[in-house]
Write a structure and sequence with these properties.
By secondary structure, the protein is an alpha+beta fold. It is built from 23 helices and 25 strands. It folds into six domains: 48 residues; 213 residues, 2-Layer Sandwich (D-amino Acid Aminotransferase, Chain A, domain 1); 101 residues, OB fold (Dihydrolipoamide Acetyltransferase, E2P); 71 residues, DNA polymerase, domain 1; 75 residues, 5' to 3' exonuclease, C-terminal subdomain (DNA polymerase, domain 1), CATH 1.10.150.20; 80 residues, BRCT domain (Rossmann fold, 3-Layer(aba) Sandwich). Strands 13, 14, 15, 16, 17, 18 and 19 form a seven-stranded antiparallel β-sheet that branches. It has a five-stranded mixed β-sheet with strand order 2-12-11-3-10. A five-stranded mixed β-sheet has the order 5-4-8-9-7. A hairpin with a 4-residue loop joins strand 13 and strand 14. Helix 3 crosses helix 8 and helix 11 packs across helix 12.
């Protein structure tokens, strides 16, 4: 048994080191399960008696005035109840009759301590590493400096919109920001956007109540505390509020006895891998998708599972024949949680599955660097039509057939006629619809920033395109120098060079598409006068459901023209929830609970009409 415990502890050491480097090899849930298994095998094992260390080489070490320990964990209501009973027993010994607990979200980032002068990581709990340079790099100290313990995190909304294709978890990039003096382009961009925060625990929303209330209502408490939180979390933290009781209960070498992390287990299922497929994205990332024996999970029968990146496959071997656990907690795409039984044999491609050119490793990702790769061309073209949003019918299968027939550039595609589509094997009706869709995509109104973003230029998404076009007209962009872009707040040197380099690479296509005469709605310049006063000016709006008066993004842009601030999710600061058809009851209930005004689409259109009338009066 000791040998088994020793081997398991060695594996945990390896996993912990990878996690601390920002390159996790297993999920948090699997790591925690292995820790519990080690506790069952050998409760007194040294690994369990100390804080899992983290190392940042070339950083000065500093001793914490009070140890920064790890946290004991509870996965079930019964475990939480036992924690409450231990606390109440200790309180009884001190003559404390009523015990209060404070519950806060458990952030999933990099823990640190900021006293206003020194900013340090947890390290081994006793000694950490000085990382004050993180603030100079652009990490935002929420609430100001000197607020004590907290965590460095990336805004969840920013990560999902800009980083999820390159990082499995936000913590990966956070570690890179802290550990390295040479930042990646993604890290620079996130910092410039103000999306990386140091969040003191004292700034988090909290709930306070008795132990029995906490145990009984934990699900509702969790939902309330995380409803409007834009930070990654992995549970809740409960702690005793009474300082005298805290001192009495004390700590182990690993954790404080008056505190516990409450972690939930998402729904999982076990299945067997039947095949592994490698997909090529528009930027050249080659990612693994597992084909599995059909399994029912969260009300859906699943047959395909994402395996994150090639590095995970290399490490854990989830190939054909492997038995795996998969998870689906609200995500549309189910994910590999852990490998229960690795495959006996696994081949990781050395050549691109689409163009057969050699692949290259970039951290944990395999990349194809051939810009003429057929799969990348297909994905870039698919991205164009998806982002533009004014041309139906161009799904990935249609695009693959066009590319296979030699229509592999936008110039060629936009020259296609109904007869050309028919010659490719499309039926008469589909050929007519495809030709009509191309014509409509040029005549339907579309924002100039969306047109620009649709080219898929590196580091130039929708938000960046909108901001860039407030300073430079679309047609002038190929002449803009990187130094000029760098002068705009939010665009760093590497990002600016990446944008100008990307534009230069597609300049002929860019000019050709502009010459086709798309019906572009021009972004107002940065020095334009403020929108006139109207019922929407300064209001925060969330659009939900299927709209009758246009695509949701078109309605969002219409609201912005009249000074509204469009949000992606309802929060306490939302003014209006605009509802189309088929709106979920949970979203409506949340809006009502927070006092947010709920508007039907017709009511919103009436408001919009008032905005136009106000604008016409002022302009007149």
């Amino acid at each position: 048994m000791n040998e088994t415990a020793a081997a398991l502890a060695a594996r945990l050491e390896k996993y912990n080191q990878a996690y601390r480097r920002g390159q996790p090899l297993v999920s948090d849930r699997e790591y925690d399960a292995l820790v519990e298994e080690l506790r069952r095998l050998q409760p007194g094992h040294p690994f369990l008696q100390r804080v899992e260390p983290e190392v940042f080489e070339a950083r000065r070490q500093v001793r914490h005035p009070v140890p920064m320990l790890s946290t004991e964990k509870a996965y079930t209501r019964e475990q939480l109840q036992r924690f409450v009973e231990r606390v109440e027993k200790a309180a009884h010994g001190l003559g404390i009759v009523s015990v209060l607990f404070r519950v806060t979200p458990k952030l999933d980032g990099l823990a640190g301590r900021d006293d206003g002068r020194i900013f340090a990581t947890r390290g081994n709990g006793e000694v950490g590493y000085e990382i004050s340079s993180a603030f100079a790099k652009g990490v935002v100290p929420v609430g100001g400096r000197g607020r004590g313990l907290g965590e460095i995190v990336v805004l969840k909304s920013y990560f999902e919109a800009h980083l999820s294709a390159d990082f499995v978890h936000p913590r990966n990039m956070v570690v890179g920001i802290v550990a390295s003096d040479v930042l990646s382009v993604q890290a620079q961009k996130a910092l410039q956007a103000g999306a990386v925060h140091f969040v003191p625990y004292s700034e988090l929303p909290s709930w306070t109540g008795s132990g029995q209330e906490m145990v009984a209502d934990m699900d509702a408490i969790t939902a309330a505390l995380t409803a409007d939180l834009d930070y990654p979390t992995d549970g809740m933290v409960a702690e005793v509020t009474d300082e005298r009781l805290r001192r009495h209960m004390g700590a182990t070498a690993h954790h404080y006895r008056w505190q516990i992390a409450i972690k939930t287990r998402s729904e999982t299922a076990v299945t067997r891998v039947t095949a592994i497929h490698w997909q090529v994205g528009r930027t050249g990332n080659v990612t693994p998708v597992l084909e599995v024996e059909p399994v029912l999970l969260s009300g859906a029968t699943l047959r395909r599972v994402t395996a994150h990146h090639a590095g995970l496959v290399r490490e854990q071997r989830p190939g054909p024949g492997a038995v795996i656990e998969i998870i689906r907690s609200g995500e549309v795409i189910p994910k590999l949680e852990r490998v229960l039984k690795p495959a006996d044999h696994l081949d990781i491609p050395q050549k691109c599955p689409a163009c057969t050119k050699p692949l290259f490793w970039q951290n944990d990702f395999l990349k194809c660097r051939n810009p003429s790769c057929r799969a990348q061309i297909e994905q870039r073209m698919h991205y164009w039509f998806q982002t533009l949003g004014t041309a139906d019918w161009f799904g990935i299968q249609t695009i693959r057939r066009m590319v296979a027939a030699g229509y592999d550039t936008l110039e060629k595609v936009y020259a296609l006629t109904q007869d050309d589509f028919a010659a490719m094997g499309f039926g008469p009706l589909q050929s007519r619809n495809l030709a009509k869709a191309l014509a409509l995509s040029r005549t339907q109104p579309v924002e100039d920033w969306r047109f620009l973003a649709a080219f898929g230029i590196p580091d130039l998404g929708k938000g960046e395109s909108r901001r860039l076009l407030t300073f430079f007209p679309l047609e002038k962009l190929p002449e803009v120098r990187a130094e000029e872009i760098e002068m705009i707040h939010g665009f760093g040197k590497k990002t600016s060079e990446s944008i100008t380099g990307g534009l230069a690479a597609i300049v002929e296509t860019f000019r050709h598409m502009l010459a086709l005469g798309f019906n572009l709605q021009i972004t107002a310049p940065a020095n334009a006068k403020e929108p006139p006063a109207n019922p929407l000016n300064g209001k925060r709006l969330v659009f939900t459901g299927k709209m009758k008066h246009g695509r949701r993004e078109q309605m969002q842009e219409g609201a912005r023209r009249f000074g509204a601030r469009v949000q992606s999710a309802v929060s306490a600061r939302t003014d209006y929830l605009v509802c189309g058809e088929k709106v979920g009851a949970a979203k409506l209930e949340k809006a009502r609970r927070l006092g947010v005004a709920v508007l039907s689409e017709a009511e919103y259109m009436a408001l919009l009409k008032k905005c136009r009338e106000t604008s016409e009066v002022r302009d007149g």
